[in-house]
Amino acid sequence: MYPLLSGLKVVECASFIAGPSCALHMQQLGAEVIRIDPIGGGPDFKRWPITEQGNSLYWEGLNKGKQSVAIDLSSPEGRELAIRLITAPDPNGGIFVTNFPAKGFLSHDALRKHREDLITVRVMGWRDGETAVDYTVNAAIGVPYMTGSSANGDQPVNHVLPAWDLMTGAYAAFATLAAERHRRLTGQGQEVTIPLSDVAIASLGHMGNIAEVLAEGDRPRVGNALYGAFGRDFTTADQRVVMITAITSRQWNGLLQSLDLVDAVAAVEAELSVSFKRDEGLRYTHRDRLFPLVEAAVAQATFDDLKSRFAKNGVCWAPYRTLSDALLNEPRLSVDGPIFDANVSHPSGRSYPAPGAAASFSAMDRTPVQGAPRMGAHTEQVLAEQLGMSSSEIAALFDAGTVASEK
Hints:
By secondary structure, the chain is α/β, with parallel strands linked by helices. The protein folds into two domains: about 5-205 and about 340-405, 3-Layer(aba) Sandwich (Rossmann fold), CATH 3.40.50; about 230-320, 2-Layer Sandwich (formyl-coa transferase, domain 3). The protein is built from 16 helices and twelve strands. The protein has helices spanning about 20-25, 55-60, 75-85, 110, 135-140, 165-185, 195-205, 210-215, 250-260, 260-270, 280-285, 285-300, 305-315, 325-330, 380-385, 390-400; strands at about 10-15, 30-40, 65-70, 95-100, 120-125, 190-195, 230-235, 240-245, 315-320, 340-345, 350-355, 405. The strands form three sheets. Strands 6-5-4-1-2-3-12 form a seven-stranded mixed sheet, sandwiched between helices. A three-stranded antiparallel sheet has the order 7-8-9. Helix 1 (about 20-25) packs across helix 6 (about 165-185), helix 5 (about 135-140) packs across helix 7 (about 195-205) and helix 9 packs across helix 13. The relative contact order is 0.14. The model has no long low-confidence stretch (mean pLDDT about 95).
């Protein structure tokens, strides 16, 4: 955590990845984040992976360092209390991150009646309000038909990484700070809507995929090959599988030197009247000639031998690992690294390493990573500090079941 956003106050009412990760990014750069949680937990409160006791490691990972206020959002009193927290008059507050529906008591139009300069950042599925999650958006934009190989025929191939959720969360944090800067300059609040579908289709546009498909049709499925350049998985003599890529001329030359393939590739170049050094696309076009050469050379070398040769020649490569293998045997991914705190206590009762901000800032030191809160752990504190409520007023809310707390 870094104190760059110290003083900024964000109220979050969100589930799953995109909304909570947006607020998490800001918390890890110093913002104070207050979660409004339904009593008993929202729809992701028990989401896998979970402990033997049913505590969600997913939930506590996405909500590190935040404060939790548990409110009965089904009651008029609870909804009024949530609105008061979101629209509290603190000049550093008035920032609301949510993935709740655009209509209802948490709509921007309803909330800004209580605070005109409110910034509402709303993560959505589809722009028109239809529900969607990362995996349905990914299916809709065609990526599972780019993934896989011809062996999959007309069957889609999903992947495990919720890329659009993660990108939307990061983009939402950026958009929140842009809206806050605009408010500082103009005094104007606004609603910022960020649909997963728009982030996904815009990203494909940024990478040239839309221009490609409009001109040439859908991209062929190429399995583990790197589209448009040289890259694929190869197996060593001792049965280690490695990913090797060569995008730049330097990487390509280093690969040929490492595998003693300079003359063999030169013969292919002469036969085809091409230069693989100058054009990465040609390496892809003629991959059926190049892959067998590299495959045979890699198959004759042990993993340790390749590692030494590749380091000497600046080859871009990596072994395929499981996550547990990576944590144990790749120092650059170790939980002993600088972005982790070694022994953070979490509401599951476990203590384990947890990451802070992925960025490192040279002008300041990191502060410790904080674990996620227990549900409603900060209810009393937040109501007293943010709304100035007395202990008797807070006790009455507990007695009525409008709020709850788990210490």
